[in-house]
């Protein structure tokens, strides 16, 4: 066996060891998370399912996050009522690009069913460099002159600007100025809340749900 062959096989062995170790760690972490999520659901008398259904994505297809990427998957699905509001909490992942350039995005989402509200379609997300570049090409968002911090830190878009401005009242705008990094999407009777590419730890789920509920209350003017 030549020196080049030895090096080639050694590199292959190292690659296989790293790949196997990564799989074992990821699998173990995922299993522990599922067990913790199931225990949380049981403790709070919610319903738990290890794997989500495509029906949920299909029923909420107009929420922008569900239109992202491919190979979409829901897991650790928890459903119930929080402060008398029906909700669905889940880990949602999707893949962007393909081949060697593919990347998987994972985030914990909460979808709240708003039976008594009919919200305009909108998408709120933290502002990033791509949004600033978009301004050069006249891709504008909805800004509020009296809330400069909100306008600087968040990118808000939607189909009916007048209706969206009615939703974003003073209390809601102040809330977002004091809570950064949030994503909120809405369409008619559904509102989705999440932090992009971030999984919420089971111990923090109660606070995560409460934050979604707080945003709902501000939208509803309560």
Description:
There is one protein chain. With 222 residues, the protein is of the alpha+beta class. The protein is built from seven helices and eight strands, in the order αβαββββααβααββα. Residues 14-28 have low confidence and may be disordered.
Supply database-style keywords.
alpha+beta; 222 residues; eight-stranded antiparallel β-sheet; 7 helices; 42% helix
What topology emerges from the helices and strands here?
Blueprint lengths: L2 H41 L3 E5 L2 H6 L10 E13 L2 E12 L6 E11 L5 E8 L2 H8 L11 H6 E5 L2 H7 L2 H9 L4 E6 L1 E5 L10 H16 L2
Antiparallel strand pairs: 1-2, 2-3, 3-4, 4-8, 5-6, 5-7, 7-8
In a nutshell, what does this entry contain?
With about 220 residues, this protein is α+β, with helices and mostly antiparallel strands. The chain has 7 helices and 8 strands.
């Amino acid at each position: 066996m030549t020196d080049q062959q030895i090096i080639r096989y050694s590199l292959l062995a190292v690659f296989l060891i790293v790949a196997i170790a990564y799989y074992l760690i990821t699998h173990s972490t995922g299993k522990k998370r599922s067990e913790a999520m199931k225990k949380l659901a049981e403790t709070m008398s919610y319903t738990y399912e290890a794997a989500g259904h495509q029906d949920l994505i299909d029923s909420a297809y107009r929420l922008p996050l569900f239109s992202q990427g491919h190979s979409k998957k829901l897991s650790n699905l928890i459903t119930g009522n929080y402060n008398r509001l029906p909700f669905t909490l889940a880990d949602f992942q999707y893949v962007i690009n393909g081949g060697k350039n593919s990347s998987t995005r994972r985030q914990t989402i909460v979808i709240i069913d708003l039976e008594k509200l009919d919200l305009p379609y909108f998408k709120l997300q933290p502002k990033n460099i791509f949004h600033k570049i978009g301004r050069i090409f006249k891709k504008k968002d909805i800004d509020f002159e009296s809330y400069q911090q909100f306008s600087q830190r968040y990118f808000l878009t939607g189909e009916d600007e007048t209706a969206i401005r009615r939703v974003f009242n003073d209390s809601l705008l102040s809330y977002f100025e004091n809570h950064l990094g949030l994503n909120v999407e809405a369409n008619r009777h559904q509102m989705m809340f999440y932090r992009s590419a971030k999984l919420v730890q089971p111990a923090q789920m109660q606070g995560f749900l409460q934050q979604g509920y707080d945003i709902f209350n501000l939208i509803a003017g309560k």
